[in-house]
Structure formats: structure tokens, C-alpha cells
């Protein structure tokens, strides 16, 4: 570590707020721009960098910085951005699985418990009329395929085909609307 960085770091360990503020104002704008190369949301980038500086202030006595402070800050921001993206991907993957499970669920009460129920309802409204009607009879009203076929005077295969097409359209629509970009 350079001697200047060692002196600054020792001052931070001693609790010198003025040195900390000087480091913050020197590195903050560049770290935000750097974070935006990973995460394309300026509010998230600001949170990441601010959280890093808070951690740096609170844990300075425990940190073992080998190289320069600048290298430490940029590496820490990069790692935090990658962690954020990893966590976002996991969250989005769970949303995909949840949507698919909801579309495959035969429980008519399931949609009442879904956080995404408003999005699901809006996507269902966009289905062609006959497809929407068959879908609602199956998943909202809980009718069996045979019962729907008899009620609508169509073959069971027609009902099955329409339900499969409805599920595919809903999957596509819901995946497009739930910000699952990182998963794909």
C-alpha cells in the first residue's frame, strides 16, 4: 500500500471524519459511474456505493487492505454489484418458477394467494375470448377438462389445446412483464 493510503487508512481507523468525508467525495462519483457499468439503475448504484462507504467506516479497524484504497473501493463495488445481480437473478428465477407453477396449478384458490395476481389477471384479459373463457372455467372455476368440453360442446382435445395455448401466451406475457431480463 502506498504511504499516502496507509496514512489515510490509519486516520480512518482512528475515527477521523474529515478524512473519511474527503475520501467519500473523492471516490463517490467515480464509483457510481463504475457501478453503472454493471447495474443499470442509478438508485441501486448509489445504494451500493453508500453501503460500501458505511461498511468501510464501521469496519475500518477490522479491514486488511493490501493494495491501494482506490483498488479496494473499486474491487468492493464490483463485488457488490455482482452480488446484487446474482441475487436479482435468483429472485427472478423464483418468479419464473412461481409463474409457471401458478399456470400449472389446478387449485382454483391459488390465484387469490399470488402476489402477481394483478399481472396474471391482466394477462388473462388479453387472451382471445374463447381461450379466456376456457381458461377461467378450468382455473378459476375448477372445472375438469371433460366438464368444460361438455359445457361448451367441443371436444376434450380442443379444450386441452386451447388451455395449452393459453398457458404459453400467459407465460410469455408474464415473463415479459416481470423484469426477468437477467434470468434470460
UniProtKB/TrEMBL annotation:
Gene3D superfamilies: 1.10.1740.10, Winged helix-like DNA-binding domain superfamily/Winged helix DNA-binding domain (1.10.10.10). InterPro entries: RNA_pol_sigma-70-like, RNA_pol_sigma-70_dom, RNA_pol_sigma70_bacteroid, RNA_pol_sigma70_r2, RNA_pol_sigma70_r4_t2, RNA_pol_sigma_r2, RNA_pol_sigma_r3/r4-like, WH-like_DNA-bd_sf. GO terms for molecular function: DNA binding; sigma factor activity. Residues 24-88 form the RNA polymerase sigma-70 region domain. Keywords: Sigma factor, Transcription, Transcription regulation. It comes from the Bacteria. GO terms for biological process: DNA-templated transcription initiation. The keyword Transcription regulation applies. Residues 118-170 form the RNA polymerase sigma factor 70 region 4 type domain. The keyword Iron-sulfur does not apply. Belongs to the sigma-70 factor family. ECF subfamily. This is RNA polymerase sigma-70 factor (ECF subfamily). The lineage of its organism: Bacteria, Pseudomonadati, Bacteroidota, Bacteroidia, Marinilabiliales.
Amino acid at each position: 500500500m502506498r504511504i499516502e493510503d496507509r496514512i489515510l487508512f490509519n486516520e480512518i481507523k482512528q475515527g477521523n471524519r474529515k478524512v473519511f468525508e474527503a475520501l467519500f467525495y473523492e471516490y463517490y462519483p467515480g464509483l457510481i459511474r463504475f457501478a453503472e457499468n454493471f447495474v443499470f439503475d442509478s438508485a441501486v448504484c448509489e445504494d451500493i456505493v453508500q453501503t460500501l462507504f458505511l461498511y468501510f467506516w464501521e469496519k475500518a479497524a477490522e479491514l486488511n487492505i493490501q493494495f491501494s484504497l482506490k483498488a479496494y473501493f473499486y474491487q468492493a463495488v464490483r463485488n457488490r454489484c455482482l452480488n446484487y445481480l446474482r441475487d436479482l437473478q435468483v429472485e427472478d428465477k423464483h418468479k419464473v418458477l412461481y409463474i409457471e407453477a401458478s399456470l400449472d396449478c389446478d387449485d382454483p384458490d391459488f390465484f387469490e394467494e399470488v402476489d402477481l395476481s394483478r399481472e396474471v389477471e391482466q394477462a388473462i384479459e388479453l387472451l382471445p375470448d374463447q381461450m379466456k373463457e376456457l381458461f377461467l372455467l378450468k382455473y378459476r372455476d375448477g372445472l375438469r377438462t371433460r366438464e368444460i368440453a361438455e359445457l361448451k360442446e367441443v371436444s376434450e382435445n380442443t379444450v386441452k389445446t386451447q388451455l395449452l395455448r393459453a398457458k404459453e401466451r400467459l407465460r410469455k406475457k408474464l415473463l415479459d412483464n416481470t423484469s426477468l431480463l437477467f434470468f434470460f
